[in-house]
Structures are given as C-alpha cells and as structure tokens.
C-alpha cells in the first residue's frame, strides 16, 4: 500500500512517472487481453480500438480497420471540440463576460 501511495503522490520524480505509466499501460493491456479471451472482442475503449486497428491492418480486414479508425477519429474530434469549448469559455471569462456554462478550470 505504501508503494501505491508513492506512485500516486502529487510530487513525483520522473522515474516514478515512468513506473506509473508502465503500470497503467500493463493494466490496460491485461484488460484488453482478458476481455478478448472471454468475449472475443476488445473491452476497453481507446486501447481496445488501437488494438482493433492493428488487427484490421494485419488481417487485411477493411471493415474492422475502418470501424476502429472511425472510433479513434471520433474520439480525437470530440477531444478537439472539448478543448475548443474550454478555450472559448476561458477567453470569455478573461473579457469579463463569462457565460453561464461549464467551469473554466479543473
């Protein structure tokens, strides 16, 4: 338990950040592998779609490839729209006429 607190501490060394990243990536891969073995499909969203994208490319399955590519592009588009909305609300707040809407800081 002490080691987990060390990994999630607010002030971490770069080596601790790498260890946390590796642990999270391993966990995501384990979820993908377990879901694939049990359900015959990837169960986590973005890492699953990245794996599905690679499968479609290697297997030459265009339907699988386009399905995964569409999901990844939709995710990136949604993220870009969220950043745009955040910057718009932040600019309005700096002008002094903040609209009622989502909070501008997290």
Question: How big is the Rg?
Answer: 19 Å
Uncertain stretches of 5 or more adjacent residues: none
Helices, by number, come to: 4
Would you count the extended β strands for me? 0
Separation of termini?
A: 28 Å
Largest sheet: none
Range of helix content: over 70%
- Tally of domains: 2
Strand-helix topology:
Layout: H1 2-7, H2 14-39, H3 46-59, H4 62-95
Helix pairs in contact: 3-4
Overview of the structural elements:
- The longest helix has 34 residues, at 62-95.
- It contains 4 helices and no strands.
- Helix 3 (46-59) runs antiparallel to helix 4.
- The protein is mainly alpha-helical.
- It folds into 2 domains: 1-43; 45-98.
- It has helices spanning 2-7, 14-39, 46-59, 62-95.
Main features:
about 110 residues; about 0% strand; flat; 2 domains; mainly alpha
